[in-house]
From TrEMBL:
Top-level EC class: ligase
Organism: Geodia barretti
Claim: Ligase is one of the keywords in the record: yes
Keyword annotations of the record: Aminoacyl-tRNA synthetase, ATP-binding, Ligase, Nucleotide-binding, Protein biosynthesis
Region annotation Disordered: where it falls in the sequence: 39-69
Stated name of the protein: threonine--tRNA ligase
Ranges for domain TGS: 96-160
Superkingdom of origin organism: Eukaryota
Length: 324
């Protein structure tokens, strides 16, 4: 079945840095055209690597249960990412590095080197506290990963959580952590999950599986483990044909790539074993989202087909605002 993880019936408390965050969000459903469910159910059974019994074994820390063996699509996807990342890093290394001037909002300037200096480097030059509390950068008006090299002379803003755009990035990164937990616990095929006002959602194909309240403690344990690992969010520019190969196991992703990607290249992001089609940007690593608690779930209509209720779960998040 297609499980819609919407920001609607899951209650979570999130902490960024050492301080609490919280808001209440509004339900939003994704929409799309019908997919071939029978065809995809067969693909799920053959490619996910999920045992027929749905067996989950304890791995890692206390209470941490996930599929064993893990979904089969994880290995080939990661191998392809690492190969393409090596090629991309070689291309970046070959770019000529020249002196650049970075202009801050107060008019002060910082010197750097193109294709070497990052926004995080600039923040750290100002103060360690600023580097630690910055959620995301903005370069010449464009949101920019803190660890992505600056390419030329530019203006730079360092956004903290009190900025609305920084909050969107925070929620989006939270969604990727939930997506990783879904893959590791259910063997789910992720579909679509952008941030929305006050939170985020993820749709995922889960064949004959259903989400249940009894799963929450296990999902939560995986989520917390991902946070503890401080998995770096890694950006990679990928050609469209390579994207189709990378996500060939996932009919939903391939449809998004075919219908929505109109440029020769776009980006994917990796955190841990999760690799997902994504424009980004993201927080530096998963450790920036300190905690989450899943407390409720309810059903909804199928957001991909617009048909009658199709065993779609809806989840809600609530975040505290950044406070003292």
């Amino acid at each position: 079945m297609l499980l819609g993880l919407l920001a609607r019936r899951l209650s979570c408390k999130f902490v960024f840095g050492g301080r609490s965050l919280g808001i209440s969000n509004t339900a939003v459903a994704a929409r799309g055209r019908p997919v071939n469910h029978r065809r995809f159910q067969g693909a799920m059974a053959s490619s996910s690597g999920t045992p027929d019994s749905g067996e989950r074994k304890k791995k890692g820390g206390e209470g941490l249960k996930e599929l064993d063996p893990p979904p089969e699509f994880l290995g080939p996807r990661l191998e392809m990412f690492e190969r393409l990342k090596k090629e991309y890093d070689q291309w970046v290394e070959a770019q000529e590095s020249t002196p650049i001037t970075v202009t801050l909002p107060d008019g002060k300037t910082v010197s750097g080197s193109s294709w070497k200096t990052t926004a995080c480097d600039v923040a750290a030059q100002i103060s360690k506290g600023l580097a630690d509390n910055t959620v995301i950068a903005k370069v010449d008006g464009e949101l920019w990963d803190l660890d992505r090299p600056l390419e030329k002379d530019c203006s730079l803003q360092l956004l903290k959580f009190d900025d609305e755009e920084a909050q969107q990035v925070f929620w989006h990164s939270s969604a990727h952590i939930l997506g990783e937990a879904m893959e590791r616990f259910y063997g789910a095929h992720l579909c679509y999950g952008p941030p929305i006002e006050g939170g985020y959602y993820y749709d995922a194909w889960m064949a004959d599986k259903q989400v249940a309240p009894s799963d929450f403690s296990s999902l939560e344990a995986i989520f917390k483990n991902i946070v503890k690992e401080k998995q770096q969010f890694v950006r990679l520019v990928v050609k469209k044909e390579d994207l189709l190969e990378m996500f060939k196991y996932n009919e939903f992703k391939c449809r998004i790539i075919d219908e929505k990607i109109t440029t020769p290249t776009t980006t994917v992001y990796r955190c841990g074993p999760l690799i997902d089609l994504c424009r980004g940007p993201h927080v530096r690593h998963t450790g920036k989202i300190k905690a989450a608690t899943i407390t409720a779930v309810s059903g909804s209509s199928n957001p991909w087909t617009g048909q009658k209720p199709f065993n779609v779960g809806s989840l809600k998040l609530s975040y505290p605002w950044m406070g003292q």
